[in-house]
What we know:
The complex is a heterodimer of chains A (258) and B (286). Chain A has 258 residues and is α+β, with helices and mostly antiparallel strands.
Amino acid sequence: MSPILLPRRKFLGLGAIGLGAAALAVSGRLADVPSFEELIGDAQYLTYGAQRLLGRNALAREFSAKDISPDFKVNGTHRPDTPEYEALLAENFAGWRLAVDGLVVNRLSLSLADLRALPQRAQITRHDCVEGWSAIGQWQGAPLAEILKRAVPLPAARFVVFHCADFYERADDGTGQYYESIDLVDAFHPQTILAHSLNGAPLSVGHGAPARLRVERQLGYKQAKYVMRIELVERLDGFGRGKGGFWPDRGYEWYAGI
Amino acid sequence: MTDVLPLQAAAQTRKKIFVARHALVTRVTHWVNAICIFGLLMSGLNIFMAHPALYWGQSGSDRDPAAFEIGATSSDADTPHGFIRFGDKRFETTGVLGAVRDADGDWHERAFPYWATLPGPRDLGLARRWHFFFAWLFVCNLAAYYLFGLTSGHLRRDLLPNGAQLRPKALLRDIVHHFKLQFPQGEAARHYNPLQKIAYLGLIGIVLPLVALTGMTMSPGMDAIFPWLVDLFGGRQSARTLHFIAANLIVLFIVVHLLMVVLAGPINEIRSMITGKLKILPEETP
């Protein structure tokens, strides 16, 4: 069972586990305890629970135009290396269609023009990379809530999964496609948008053209670029290696609000 | 009243006795804190390696001017040169920072040597998990200590220096005692001296809250919940810089603290932080 499905139980049990772990750390037997890393990783549910408890609907700070970083660093994939993406890029994404499906009443297929025709939101926010650096930019796009309202999620839906066009690390078995996921609190948060522009210009390829996710209370790796499909799901263990995202599958927290 | 007894004379005539020195809560929180700080410092260095540069203000990345940076230049084929840079000043640090040699002798362009980081030489994801786990434990432990310290009167009674202790003359005398390595063995050992009080209160009251709050300010989620954190420290990147400075102050404290323990009598001092009892020379023979 995915640990992500059990945040509350983990949240409660963690305090007791804490002292035990401290004792283990002292005894220097870390390497002998197979579950130590898992245990340590469970602190993310404490963080997730605490942040949801303290400020479920809190807004990320919005800055003014003078704060915008002169050079917004491109990180992760710089250019997806698939023929499908190259074909879309060649015709300036005229053929791009964003699929919205999974646990929804209405499946959607949105063109870039459709995305731009939805109610828009522009916000100047700070992007925090897990590495430690920050950059400020103005993002514009459609609130994810507007898209989800049109799709109408079914009651069973608990997470929103973003399937991307890029393979950040393609393995021999064909896996390694970038994906990310968020809960419905973040999905319906007013600052969560599917952005098509950065600093007033259409997204460059490096920044995720034609559309990327902005989920402003989490770190950079949650801001999925090259979004091709939005899927509403009940559980995350069927995707990738089961942890809810490309980097979460590789040891990073699924909840990246810290 | 004698603060410092001549060791040899006293030892022959009087028997040492054990006196209650540290409360149980103080001892437990001390050791939990020690474990947390150890884990936090070493996993923190591991995290810092992912982007070993510090900025001031709201944002900062590769092309923005860094106030501090650890880096390497690999103009030579074999051995890279490590350096640290403060503003315009560069210092060669090959072998220690920037360019380091692993246990197998291979050179790597990496901010810190393998022995300085947990849980391994370089693993951002895992180091973050360690860091946040120990951060939670550290904050809960610190809160428990504050609660105890305030309700029991420990902070006011044992750590707050009184007016007499803060007079320049008293401070000067205490500094001289420290430099002469004269540590109280008698009744005065039941209490902290002025320099100890200042060091402990400075750590407990300023540096530890600073490191916790600047750490929280790096969290985009916490910044949304408590926007005043960002204002307090002048931006997320300023907070990151202050977090690094506070961590260095903790290292400085630990070095001096351990040195003092060794000089004052390591067995007696460490035992007192475990059992609570400190062996002292009574002032007068019973």
